[in-house]
Amino acid sequence: MTKTTTLRTTLVLAAALVALPAFAHDHATTTPATQPSTVPSTGPATEPAADHGDASEVTAQQVIDAYIEATGGRAAYETVAEASYVIDGKIIIQAQGIEGTYKMYRDGEKMLMVADIPNFGEIKRGYDGETFWESNLMTGARIVEGAEKEATVRESGFDSLLNPTEHYESMTVVGTENVNGEETHKVELVDKLTGETETRFYSIETGLLLKATVFAPMPGSVVETTVQFDNYKEFLGILMPTETTQSQMGGSVLLTVSGVSDEFDLGGNSFDVPDELK
Fold first, then answer.
1. Residue pLDDT, tens place only, 195-250
2. 237 Rama sector, left if φ>0, alpha if ψ -120 to 50, beta otherwise
3. pLDDT at residue 124, rounded to an integer
4. Residues 6+ apart with CB under 8 A from 225
5. What is the pLDDT of residues 64-97, one digit of tens each?
């Protein structure tokens, strides 16, 4: 994988980092990175997913509802929607032996991702509530517009999860498929924004999302990405995968989550658009 391809892969990952939703809530305390509540990747420490009978008769909405319940419940998502939080983690490009770090900040609808990756330097993507921007040493600073902005802002919140019919033309369970030894519901969703068909694989036993094929709008193109979700853990009352492997364009990047905190501090950074873009 060339350095140019690796940069593009990393920028797709950066877009996904900004799209990480809030996992803190207003009654939470800091969750140290060393003390999360661990949940096996095969299922949460809660009741199994609701039984909807024959797998061939289950609807896509039922599958998504089971995921919501398995990861904390609709009320929990509604509670955290406007929370402030910080996520810490690592970005690992194994094929090149590169390991970087990131912090993801959110304060209401405002978002900021700051990543430091060897050979690529610092990458920032921010949203001040109106304008989405990106800055990195290799391509400079730019305003993110169009479908790329809309998709990232949409996925950063919970509305597309809680109200999927507003964002997808159709949602269909097309069958079952084995993913890493676990039977899943295979769900296809046609995105209103891109027109592409997204595919998700939800565990029949636990309701958790194990794998997905998604399409990320980028400048001049839409990038197909396969994402695998592993090692779910509970942070501040919500289950989230702490290992996410994204594969696209002949390469892969591992995103890990070390901890989630509601002790919000931007550390000298800002959601605001950089001066060079004003």
1. 999 999 999 999 999 999 988 777 777 788 899 999 999 887 789 899 999 988 77
2. left
3. 93
4. 12, 16, 213, 214, 215, 216, 246, 247, 248
5. 999 999 999 998 888 777 788 899 999 998 888 8
Would strands 84-93 and 98-107 be described as parallel, antiparallel, or unpaired? Answer: antiparallel
Other Cβ atoms less than 10 A from the Cβ of 145: the count is 12
Site of tokens 């900021």: 112
Distance CA 127, CA 107 (A): 10
Go through 200-225 and write b for each residue having 16 or more CB atoms within 10 A of its CB, e for each that does not: bbbbbebbbbbbbbbbbbbeeebbeb
- Dist. CA 44–CA 41, nearest whole Å: 8
pLDDT at position 258 over 90: yes
Task: Count how many Cα atoms sit within 13 Å of the Cα of residue 92 in the half-sphere of its side chain.
Answer: 10
Q: CA dist 83 to 13, 63, 68, 86, 229, Å?
A: 23, 26, 18, 10, 24
φ, ψ (nearest 5 deg) of residue 166: -80, -15
Closest CA to 234 of 212, 254, 256, 259: 259
Question: Can you say how many angstroms the Cα of residue 42 is from the centroid of all Cα atoms in its chain?
Answer: 19
Distance CA 276, CA 174 (A): 48
